[in-house]
């Protein structure tokens, strides 16, 4: 294995594993976000604290922690390193070593990764998410639909290599949303704006 790819992977994992949702809610005096709602450290669960600004900050920082190692890897080691960095930043967010490998679901990280890898694909991902979210009022369904279609757009807009990297991230996102998928199939998934929360 090229040692530069190893550098990219390790750096990206460490960046991705920074739990901004947990850090921000604690700093704001809101306690441990893992004890609220779904127990997730991502922006959607931070929103359940009632602090929209904190949720927005979590979203931006989670996206940035994926974009940063991708841009660094691309600058120093090339496009293959950038795509590998995207995958490992995603892994770091979903399975952070500091939190016993229990992290977020990866939506914000995927947005940041796609915008850094290919901004048109990233914007399409966001557009698909928004259309489904507004139409169905289901955040998880919006994320799953956007993730499922992202590899197709990556292939059309860029190439098969990016499509492959995006497909790996999409599969991880689906894995992290497995409980949501069960609830979607059962018709019990809480809608956006609902007071109901689920583990």
Automatic annotation (TrEMBL):
Single Gene Ontology MF annotation: acyl-phosphate glycerol-3-phosphate acyltransferase activity
Free-text function comment from the UniProt entry: Catalyzes the transfer of an acyl group from acyl-phosphate (acyl-PO(4)) to glycerol-3-phosphate (G3P) to form lysophosphatidic acid (LPA). This enzyme utilizes acyl-phosphate as fatty acyl donor, but not acyl-CoA or acyl-ACP.
EC number: 2.3.1.275
Domain of life where this protein originates: Bacteria
Alphabetized UniProt keyword annotations: Acyltransferase, Cell membrane, Lipid biosynthesis, Lipid metabolism, Membrane, Phospholipid biosynthesis, Phospholipid metabolism, Transferase, Transmembrane, Transmembrane helix
GO BP, one annotated term: phospholipid biosynthetic process
Organism: Devosia psychrophila
The name this protein goes by in its record: Glycerol-3-phosphate acyltransferase
């Amino acid at each position: 294995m090229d040692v530069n790819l190893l550098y990219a992977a390790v750096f990206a994992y460490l960046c991705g594993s920074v739990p901004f949702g947990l850090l921000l809610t604690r700093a704001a005096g809101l306690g441990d976000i893992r004890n609220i709602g779904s127990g997730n450290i991502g922006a959607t669960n931070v929103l359940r604290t009632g602090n929209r600004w904190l949720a927005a900050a979590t979203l931006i920082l989670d996206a940035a922690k994926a974009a940063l190692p991708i841009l660094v890897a691309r600058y120093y080691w090339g496009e293959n390193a950038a795509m590998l960095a995207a995958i490992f930043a995603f892994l770091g967010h979903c399975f952070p070593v500091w939190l016993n490998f229990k992290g977020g679901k990866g939506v914000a990280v995927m947005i940041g990764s796609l915008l850094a890898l290919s901004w048109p694909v990233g914007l399409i991902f966001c557009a698909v998410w928004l259309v489904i979210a507004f139409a169905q009022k289901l955040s998880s369904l919006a994320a799953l639909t956007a993730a499922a279609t992202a590899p197709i757009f990556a292939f059309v807009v860029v190439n098969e290599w990016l499509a492959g990297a995006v497909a790996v991230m999409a599969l991880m996102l689906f894995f992290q949303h497995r409980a949501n998928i069960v609830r979607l199939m059962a018709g019990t998934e809480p809608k956006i704006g609902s007071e109901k929360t689920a583990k």
